[in-house]
Every structure is written in structure tokens, then in C-alpha cells.
Amino acid sequence: MAEDDKYVKDGTVDYRNNPAIKKETGTWRACPYILGNECCERLAYYGINTNLVNYLKFQMNESSVVAVNNVTNWSGTCYVTPLLGAFLADAYLGRYWTIAAFSIIYVFGMTVLTLSASVHGLKPPCDDNNTCHPKGIQIGIFYLGLYLIALGTGGIKPCVSSFGADQFDDSDEIEKKKKSSFFNWFYFSINIGALVASTVLVWIQTNVGWGWGFGIPAVAMAVAVVSFFSGTRLYRNQKPGGSPLTRIFQVIVASFRKFKVKIPRDTSLLYETADEESAVQGSRKLDHTEQLSFFDKAAVETQSDKIKGSVNPWSLCTVTQVEELKSIIRLLPIWATGIIFSSVYSQMGTLFVLQGNTMDLHMTNSFQIPSASLSLFDTISVIFWVPVYDRVIVALARKFTGHKNGFTQLQRIAIGLVISIFAMLIAGTLEMVRLRTVREHNYYEMKHIPMSIFWQVPQYFVVGCAEVFTFIGQLEFFYEQAPDAMRSLCSALSLITTALGNYLSTFLVNIVTDMSTRNGGPGWIPDNLNYGHLHYFFWLLAVLSVLNFGFFLFVAKFYTYKKAIGPTS
């Protein structure tokens, strides 16, 4: 059997040409191990991320603004490192071995972080007033563990969803229909892990200790690794197709080298391999599209190309290779609209938590809920909306739209963008009501005003609803519209919007803090929010979200979908 077969079992067998192997591997029989891995890994990640702002503020003795910025910077880094993991997966290692290798780094980072919060001499000492005074070496070890986790997650995030989708054969209509449902349940599994993190783990961190609070996520990550390896014999593994960046630069260089060459009107004259299969390993051929025609110059065969005999890929590229670059460029405007949405989403781990810290945390007379645990309502919202969307909304929408999935991926993303606007309006309105209560009763120096934290539930629930539409829509959109041999890279691109959203949030916080405190005032986001104007920041995000939605409608109107033809190589 040919060595360049796309799908392999144990690295050797093409399941498509062997019905017995196909029956034994992939589809939903392989997915429980992948979903179990994702559930445990997300439990570990959110076990750190959900309450990190409080750890930084009270254990590392950082101010509110510094703590918020450090959380968003770390979260952002967790969504930048997937570029590295995606490149290695698509070019050299394949998704399976990338996930395996980076999982080990992840476990090591979790171990270092746990030691920094539990071992005497490594954890910050605190005085009788519970004010902690971390030393330089303690800060260094803590952030070493934190950023090792960021590196480890870089090989997992861009690969797991694509690896799960790889278990469904695009050439098999029955399996292809199941793939859309996989993305819904993949996101569902993420939020099961997040639910445990935002309830049990946050309570343990607040009431038992940070050593246990970080140690349990470390164990969960170890379980994630075991779950992943347990399904090895059932997986369909896609071989790496070589460096996607090299192919992209080859098209760019060849296009500029042939700057003066005219493109033939008959596009069938553009260069493509004569074989039915694509020259790019692990990819189907792509049909020619009219947009971005400048890059078609790379596929124009000149006299010098013919004289040389063998093809120089830096001078002559196939139509499929050119269309790979076009597909990436067409994705970028849609990709950019995810940045503002991710800024809205990032507020759940920062300003929503600080807002909750000022409110009444009591569930009963004797039990207080940690403010970070309110994110469980975002999780509950996702857990509620995923099956409702998958089983009810799709069926109803299909009757009106006639689309097999109810909505197109772009329509699904758009709905989530609209819902996110209302999340910020709700959060801003709550803060206005809270501040009015502070003013009316002179509660400025009160740590927890007599206003229940459960008034925050609607804003968390609405953000969760928006996630089900936009984040899952993005997962599916970037997988489907990515060139076959660049799917990990495009998954990483979709994740980078979360990183840039976190960085944008940091930038906006710094800008509004600098501007609002310029005349000596407390500013929008002071350490004591009772003196601030946090609702102004939520209004700002709402306005940016409206502008972002308008831009999305414009670019979506002109988007051209990818056209794959023929079998994979």
C-alpha cells in the first residue's frame, strides 16, 4: 500500500481501502477517548484560570489592574502557543504525536505550579492579617509553572478538535453528517470540565487551600493523558503534509517572480498535477476560484519552467497550492471579527469576578459562594444550549433555511456576535444598579454590599449562549474551510482570536485606567470598585461589539467557500 496514504492506523494502514479496518477505527467509537481527554484537560486549565485573578491579588499581593492584566496576558499566551503546536502537527509530527508530546510538558507545568503553592519555601509567606509577601524566587517559580502550562496547551488546543474531526471520513456521507454534531459535543465536554473547575475546585481553593486547589487539576491533566493514549488503537491518524508555511511562501515568491506574466483566460491552462490526487500530501485538490487572481500567476507555466524539466516549487506552483493561500487569506477578515467577541468572553475571568467580589456572596447564612464560581452559570448555559441547539434549534431552522445544519457556519457565528452585545449591556446595567445602591446608602467602604451576587447570573448565562453559537461555529468553520493539510494551523488561527481578545482587553484596561485617572480621580476600575465606573468599560465593549458585528456582516457577504475536488493524496 502507498506510503503517502492519508489516513493510517498505527502509522501504516489506509482504512479507506480496507473495510475491516474502517469498521474498527474512527467515528464515535474513537471519540470518547478524545472527548475524555478534552474534558480532563479543560478541567485542569479552568481549574487554574477561573480563580487565578484572586490568587494573584491575595496570594501574590498584586493590585487589581496588575492581576487582571497578568491573567489576560497568560490566557492570551495560552492561545498564541497553538501556532507552534499547529505548525509542528501539520508539518512534521502529525496531530497524534503533537498532542502526546505537549501533554507531557503540560503535566510538568502543573506539577511546578502545585509545588509553588504548597511546598514551604516556595509558597508566599503571609502575615497575621493574611497579607502575603512573595519573594522573587517564589514569583519566578510560580510564573515558570504557569507559562509551562501555556506552552503545553499550545500543542493540545489546535490539534484535539481537528484530530476528533479526522475520525470522520469526508468522502462518506453518513460519517460526514456526524462530524457537525461532533463539534457540538466537543464543546459540551469542554464545559463539563469547566463546570467542575468553577464549582468544586474554586471552593477548594477558597476554603481548603491553593495546594489542593492546584494539585487536583494536575491529577486531572494526568488522567487526560491516560485517556488519550487509551484510544490509540482506534484512532485514524492523518500524516503531516509538510510545512504549510513553506508552501505559502512558495506561492508568494512565485507570484512576484512572475509579476509581469499574464494569466490565461482559460484557467484550465494553469498548472496542476495530472494525477487525480493532489501533490500536497494529505490534501484533496482544490478547484480554482476567481478572487485574489494575482496569486494565479504562480500557477502560470512559462517557457523557462518547461525548459528546466523538473518543477521548481519557488517558480511554479499547482492550482491547489495557490488555492491554499487564497483560502487562508479569505479566512482572515472572518477571523478578525472573533477578537472583540473574545474580549467580551475574557471578562468572565477578570472584571466579572472583581464585580462579584463587591457583592453579597451568601447562599445561606453560613455558606458563601466564591465570586469566581459564578462562571459555573456560563458553563451550565453551554451545557443547556448545546443539546438544545443540536436536537431542537437545528431541526427548526432547517425547516426555514433548508440547510442541512440549520444555519450556515457564518450565520451561526453572527447570531452569537449579536447575543454577546446583550451580555455587555446586562453587565453594565447591573453595575449601574450596584453603584446606585452604593451611593444611596453610603456603602463606599463596605467590602460586600447587601446585593446578592446571583444578580450576575444573567450576564454569565447570556455569554454562554453566545459561545454555543460563535465559538462552536468558529471551530467548525475553520476546520471545514481550511485546506486539508493546514487544518491544525487554521484551528490555531481561530484560537489566536482568543489571545488577541485577551490582549485587547489588557490594552483597553490600561488605556481607560490611564485616561480616567489622569486628573487624580479613582478612574473606571480602581481597587475599590465602589468609587469607580466599571459600567463605562462594559458600555465600551458593547459599542465595539456593535461595530464588530457590522464589519462581520460586510465581510461575510463576500466570502467564497472552499471547493475541494477529488480524493486525498
UniProtKB/TrEMBL annotation:
It is found in: Membrane. One of its GO terms (biological process) is transmembrane transport. The chain crosses the membrane at residues 96-117, 137-156, 185-204, 210-229, 331-354, 374-392, 413-433, 453-477, 489-513, 533-555. It comes from Nicotiana tabacum. This is Protein NRT1/ PTR FAMILY 8.1-like. Its main location: membrane. The lineage of its organism: Eukaryota, Viridiplantae, Streptophyta, Embryophyta, Tracheophyta. One of its GO terms (cellular component) is membrane. GO terms for molecular function: transmembrane transporter activity. Keywords: Membrane, Transmembrane, Transmembrane helix, Transport. SUPFAM superfamilies: MFS general substrate transporter (SSF103473). The gene is LOC107771109. Coiled coil: none annotated. Belongs to the major facilitator superfamily. Phosphate:H(+) symporter (TC 2.A.1.9) family. Belongs to the major facilitator superfamily. Proton-dependent oligopeptide transporter (POT/PTR) (TC 2.A.17) family. It is a multi-pass membrane protein. Signal peptide: none annotated.
